Amino acid sequence: MFNSILEGTGVGTLGSVTILSVAICAGVSLVLGIVAALVYMYKSSCTKNFAITIALLPIIVQALIMLVSENMGAAGIAALGVFSLVRYRSQPGNSREILAIMLSMGIGVAAGLGYVTFAIALTAIVCLMWFLLSVVNFGEKRMEKSLKVSIPETLDWSGFLDDIFKEYTTTHKLDSVRTKNMGSLYELTYTVIIKDESKEKEFLDEIRTRNGNLPVTLGRFNINAGEL
Question: Kindly report the CA angle at 212 between 206 and 214, in degrees rounded to 5?
Fold first, then answer.
């Protein structure tokens, strides 16, 4: 099923490769590269140049592999060299970009060696799983946020916002308490995870009603600094 369409012992020699074989490999590389680019662009901010790169990378890799396919050792070194480009890119990429590049290169290597069916199967499996995992938001974790609430010095903060937290957050933790304005105010700092981010305004309005419309700040939690 996964046999090479090129003549020879698994790796076709350049002299025995027919125009039809080259056309099939190039066509498959191009089509699968476009498929990989389309899947990458789904739910992802993507530049035009990067999308074009993902689409055309397989056919370029395929051509390079076919050029050195007369020698198994040279083909292996060429494949290793191509994959090393992921590490030495001019700009560091995120994990999604690295996955797209690795998939494109895998398609090119498989097509360059004549394993067209394998290249199609690889693309189908990876793209299908990529799409499904993106749809179900696999691995997504609600972000912790830092909440700072100012209250008058006469107000006891113990259990002050518990009912509001129970309604709008999944978890909450009081991190610190400090005085402000020469001791006339307390600033309470919490780490919270909001149940529904679309209700953040309602959440803050509830707190503002409770603390007398004193300052309330909600923002991303800086793990390294421990604060906003």
Answer: 95
